[in-house]
Amino acid sequence: MNQRSIFTLSAITVLGLASLPGSTVAQQKSLKEQLVGAWTLVSCESTYANGTKRSYCVSPNGILMLDASGRYASMTVARGRPKFTVPMSLETKAEEFKAAGQGLAANFGTWSVNEANKTLTTHYDGAFASNNEGTDLTRSVSLSGDELKLVSQSTVVTGGRTEGVYRRAK
Q: Closest by alpha carbon to 108, among 85, 131, 89, 133?
């Protein structure tokens, strides 16, 4: 076989392998591509600087949505929050809004990935905690099948680390 034939045969083999559904070559996706989608909250825990651990979502109920264009939305809502005594309106009491808000974390904005460092950075365009607006949060990313773990180090709130675990929504 001449050199040209060997090159042609090699190119066809590589293309053929890449097109196979179970092929490792065909499944190589960037971290960003793997993160795109909807994720449901499984657990969330803070470890304070003094070593104390605390779940910051007692009964996990939340979603993280990462779209391919670089926009995201995240919401965590505690189960069992008290109900309003009247339909939500101008007549709803301030205490009821306060009680409902104490079990709520919501934000949206843009997101990006550092493939080399395996980190996810979210930029808060809007947030229930208004002091977060305009800030960035960078977390390390760990993916295992349909499980996503996001860990932030040295947060303002805890002085320690915060870990959220999500499962791909089906």
A: 133
Angle 136-165-83 from CA coordinates, rounded to 5°: 85
Residue-level length of the chain:
170
Angstrom distance (rounded) from CA 8 to CA 126: 54
CATH of domain 36-168: 2.40.128.280
- pLDDT tens digits along 89-137: 778 889 998 988 888 899 999 999 999 999 999 999 999 989 999 999 9
pTM score of the predicted model: 0.78
The number of CA neighbours under 13 Å toward the Cβ of 123 is 8
Which pLDDT score, from 0 to 100, does residue 8 have?
Answer: 41
CB 83 within 8 A of CB 100: no
- Which residues, in sequence order, are CB contacts of 32 under 8 Å at separation 6+? 112, 113, 115
- Residue with more model confidence, 134 or 3: 134
For the chain, give every domain's residue range. Answer: 1-28, 36-168
